[in-house]
Amino acid sequence: MKITLSILLLFSISFAGKAQTFAPNGRMDMNTNPGAVITTKKPTSHTVLSSSYYLKEQWMHGLIKLKKENSAIRGKFRYNLITHYIEVIQEEELNYISRHDIAGLEWQKTDGNSIHFVNAMGYRKIQPVRGMLEVLIDGKTMLFRHSYLALKEPDYIAALQVGSQHSQITLASALYFGKQGQLVKVPFRKKKILEYFAPYQNQLKKFIKQHHLKIRKAEDLSKLVHYYNSL
User: Fold this and answer.
1) pLDDT at residue 6, rounded to an integer
2) In the chain, where are the structural domains located?
């Protein structure tokens, strides 16, 4: 059983205060700090993990898009899933930006493609979704992947002497539809997924059959949402 980290009260996280330097016109480069959103003080956490707790383990090159005055930072960064801070390297110094100050991220990969992330705070949702959402499909209906930390309970079977005797925190993910500013978690059942796209269910059923899609897979669901957006 996995339990999202956001509901575990045993984790105590304290956030650092903000630095007090400003940039002209709210614009930022590697030498400035508009709106004092950057701090050099490391956010603290009492959570201990045996594995990575970053959205992407490697440093990402690209843009950090800030909420204030549509400003942005270009550089190397990575997103900490425990503290929900962006770690950014500026002039060989490690700094931190709270997710509350971030509108989105653009990871510019070495192959020339870009992966975009948006802040979940910009969407309404029935159940809380915290952090950044990876944009899989953009359009009238969007498809997002939300990565989060989950607690895996011990699964040790004494009689067989297999499994783990300890709880483990692991990286998990869930898919969400985004439409008109609202997030809806993608249901597990195919029927429920198709109901979301009413009144185009018949067209989508034909498309699924024609292309042999397994729409519970992110790649195939992306193809379906892309097709739906073209109708």
Assistant:
1) 41
2) 2-186, 188-231
